[in-house]
Amino acid sequence: MDTTPKVTLAAMNMEAADPVRLAEFWAGAVGGVLSPGPEGCMILNSDAPGGLPMFFQPLGEGRPERQIHHLDLTVPWGTRESEVQRIVGLGAERKWDVLDEVPWIQWTTLTDPEGNLFCLGEHPPAG
Question: Which of 10, 42, 64, 83 is 20 to 30 A distant from 56 in Cα terms?
């Protein structure tokens, strides 16, 4: 019997005070095609191979005091700063940069328009 895990990540689900606005932000940030879902929800289907679909639904309760997970996104080396500026132009807020903690990545931590943390990192070329 094969016991190798067959589990893969299918989508990122997010509750939002304004699912349409948040889905539009993320579509601008990572690309993809938006479509309406059931009962005020929005679906962002990736148009890139291996991209991550996202599902946005109305916030069921008040926002938790502390965020316990966040997305780590990556861009090619040398493009992080321009991508940060582009995403800030879409409505993100830059929180902090981590440029010298470890040699294999530099990243910027941001929040989306509803205050959800995410990071945008770049890895130096090998060699």
Answer: 83
